[in-house]
Amino acid sequence: MHFAEIKKIINKQKPLAFVGTYGCQQNVSDSEKIKALLLRMGYSFTKEKKDADLIVFNTCAVRESAELRVLGSIGVLKTLKKRNPKLVIAVCGCMTEQNHIKKKIVDTFPFVDIVIGTNSIFSLKNLIIESSTKNHKKTINSVLQKISTRETDENLSKYREDQTSAFVPIMHGCNNFCSYCIVPYVRGRESSRDPRAIKKEIEDLVENGCKCITLLGQNVNSYGKNLDHPIDFTELLRSITEISGDYWIRFMTSHPKDITKELIDEIAVNDKICKHIHLPFQSGSNRILKKMNRHYTREKYIKIAEYAKEKIPYLSLTSDVIVGFPSETYEDFKRTLSLVKSIRFSSLFTFIYSKRKGTPAADIEDPILHQEKLKWFEELLKIQKDISGEFCSKFVGKTEKILLKEDCQKALRIAKTNQNITVHLHNLQERNIPNGFFEAKLTGHKGQTLIGTLDF
């Protein structure tokens, strides 16, 4: 018997699980379901893989870099498996929905016990039990499941370590099929949750002291279209914010082709909805937008962005940008730069194009060298850095309601403004101040981070 097992028996400890999450907020929410399932099975959690009886990797497939990190992390587990043959290793999430990646995991890492997709979390309990009770050499074939069951389960509870903030999916999947994006292929077609279930989940969160709830969907603006009794996203927001209590509602992501003036008007007048819209434009070139299958033009995007900024003072408008899409020229890229300079986003999430096997964009000829794309990328970052600093400077000298969150390092606490701007608050650790809403005097900024003190 391994020393770690003897130690657990002596100390009467529960088996330990390590859950590693890669990717977006939806993956974080999925991992919360996994953790709740494991708690019901009798597991406790550890942050050290070497101490774990069960290791679960919940994976991301949006960019190649994320996949490479996961594959590297799986490879390291071989030593742990040799040391503890009873260790159960599970890989789930978006990566495993791709047949070529699933095959790679099975062929390259035969010590992995369980491989399941994004919609098979409900089956994890039985697979863990099966893996734990069979000889490992026989387990890999019997436990490996076919992916894409596309089943959902409203009854799966969640284990949330952060009691101050929460992610609440309002829909799953995507119908947009942007030519560069793997999400519709790994998460399936769009499906909206019942609004009553969403509202009940949020009521429970608010009752238990949650202060910031982020509604999740690949395209929240198309929420409700597949329901028996259709309700649009703006109506859902109004219904949610009728819940009594002191809390903020955020949401992501909006799609420019579907966002409405009605939604923007609601954000402008509803105090519980944060003044922040994440509205990915991806490219400022109409030619590239068409190749991306985005279904809007540069002109339409600018029009809706200007309307939002006019209606909502101090709106934080953020976006995603892909640099170096196949066939993109420097002239196309300059149109992206001009849009950034015109709209003046509070911040951007910027990416160099990542080829995803199975997407239409993967077959487009791409003559531009990566080194050239990297130069464009750095040019964009430099311009946006100045714009972000300019946006933050508008808040310096103001007193704002902020949500105080976790410790960052000694004598430093992290907070967020209503606009989702990070605030660094110094010299608070010794005062043992709990998470929650406070008034803060914003005294300065460093790049796109504000600096402040609590206003007692």
Task: Itemize the secondary structure elements and their pairings.
Layout: H1 3-11, E1 16-21, H2 25-40, E2 44-45, E3 54-59, H3 64-83, E4 88-93, H4 99-108, E5 114-115, H5 124-133, H6 136-143, E6 165-169, E7 171-172, H7 183-187, E8 191-192, H8 195-207, E9 212-216, H9 233-240, E10 248-252, H10 261-269, E11 276-278, H11 286-292, H12 298-311, E12 316-323, H13 330-343, E13 347-352, H14 370-393, E14 399-409, E15 412-417, E16 422-426, E17 436-446, E18 449-454
Parallel strand pairs: 1-2, 1-3, 3-4, 4-5, 6-9, 9-10, 11-12, 12-13, 16-18
Antiparallel strand pairs: 7-8, 14-15, 14-17, 15-16, 17-18
Helix pairs in contact: 5-6, 10-12, 13-14
Task: Please tag this protein with its features.
37% helix, OB fold (Dihydrolipoamide Acetyltransferase, E2P), five-stranded mixed β-barrel, 14 helices, 3 domains, Rossmann fold, 456 residues, pyruvate-formate lyase- activating enzyme, globular, five-stranded parallel sheet, alpha/beta
What does this structure look like?
- The strands form five sheets. The protein has a five-stranded parallel β-sheet, sandwiched between helices.
- The protein is globular, with a radius of gyration of 23 Å.
- α5 packs antiparallel against α6 (136-143), α10 packs parallel to α12 and α13 packs parallel to α14.
- The chain is α/β, with parallel strands linked by helices and 456 residues long.
- The chain has three domains: 3-143, Rossmann fold (3-Layer(aba) Sandwich), CATH 3.40.50; 165-393, Alpha-Beta Horseshoe (pyruvate-formate lyase- activating enzyme), CATH 3.80.30.20; 399-454, Beta Barrel (OB fold (Dihydrolipoamide Acetyltransferase, E2P)).
- The protein has helices spanning 3-11, 25-40, 64-83, 99-108, 124-133, 136-143, 183-187, 195-207, 233-240, 261-269, 286-292, 298-311, 330-343, 370-393, and strands at residues 16-21, 44-45, 54-59, 88-93, 114-115, 165-169, 171-172, 191-192, 212-216, 248-252, 276-278, 316-323, 347-352, 399-409, 412-417, 422-426, 436-446, 449-454.
- The chain contains 14 helices and 18 strands.
- The protein is 37% helix and 21% strand.
